[in-house]
Design a protein that fits this description.
113 residues; Winged helix-turn-helix domain-containing protein; 3 strands; 52% helix; 5 helices
């Protein structure tokens, strides 16, 4: 087993973003990354959430600047579409990098930097 990193090397969990790391918000951002833009109902159904629960997490992500919410109509029915912002894409990439670092550390496969 390798020696633990010294105090000068932050633990990979320090790179996790509390806003992104929540399971539901990470799921929202992952779906938006995969689809570029998604309708509210699609996200709700894909992630098996209630309208209220999804709305609460969308509000948190919007306040952080990670998603944009677009309201409009499809025919006569109101629709809400969501997309990742550039900042949201960056935050998701950083979260994934921190998770990869953590997995590599736990697997003992980290490279010396």
């Amino acid at each position: 087993m390798s020696e633990p990193a010294g105090p000068e090397t932050p633990h990979p969990t320090q790179g996790l973003n509390d806003t992104v790391h929540h399971r539901t918000r990470l799921g929202i951002m992952a779906v938006l990354h995969e689809t570029d833009r998604a309708e509210f109902g699609y996200l709700r159904d894909t992630l098996n959430l209630t309208d209220g629960n999804l709305s609460r997490h969308l509000r948190t992500l919007e306040q952080a600047g990670y998603i944009e919410i677009h309201k409009g109509y499809h025919g006569r029915r109101p629709r809400t579409w969501l997309s990742l912002t550039t900042e949201g894409s960056r935050a998701l990439a950083e979260e994934l990098a921190a998770l990869r670092d953590l997995v590599a550390r736990l697997d003992g496969t980290t490279d010396s930097k």
